[in-house]
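Hypothesis: this fold can be encoded by more than one sequence.
Test: take the structure tokens below, design a sequence, compare later.
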């Protein structure tokens, strides 16, 4: 969902499409397997293909959801860090960055954080450019 989409009670429902797809693949695999096992259908290969598709979707979702959650945690961490490190009110500039830009900014040392944040907002630096601009790297050993 894009950040520009307005939230309301009518629009807050969550529809995890990848989960639905994985469920449909798994149900199709189950039906094909049951048909091949008990009804004599020639569907063993179809069953295995659908099952592999369901497993692939589940593994992909696990990775995608993990990265999204990490990005949300990093954005929260950056808001707290900027509020602690930067002069009062300067942390509000974070709201002008995309989530990916904020995630890239986490590598900047406390000493260069304010200047790099200002430059990222002013020049609309890409996440890669933000990382290139960091001179004193702050390691992130906990990212998966």
């Amino acid at each position: 969902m894009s950040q520009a989409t307005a939230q309301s009670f009518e629009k807050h429902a969550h529809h995890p499409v990848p989960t639905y797809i994985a469920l449909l693949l798994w149900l199709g695999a189950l039906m094909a397997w049951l048909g091949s096992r008990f009804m004599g259908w020639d569907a063993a290969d179809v069953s295995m293909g659908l099952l592999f598709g369901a497993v692939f979707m589940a593994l992909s979702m696990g990775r995608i959801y993990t990265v999204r959650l990490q990005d949300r945690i990093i954005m929260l961490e950056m808001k707290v860090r900027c509020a602690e490190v930067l002069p009062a009110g300067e942390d509000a500039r974070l709201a002008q960055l995309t989530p990916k830009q904020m995630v890239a900014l986490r590598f900047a040392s406390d000493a260069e954080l304010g200047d790099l944040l200002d430059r990222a907002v002013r020049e609309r630096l890409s996440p890669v450019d933000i990382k290139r601009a960091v001179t004193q790297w702050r390691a992130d050993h906990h990212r998966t």
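Residues 111 and 120 are 15 Å apart (CA to CA). The chain has a mean pLDDT of 90.
Hypothesis status: open.
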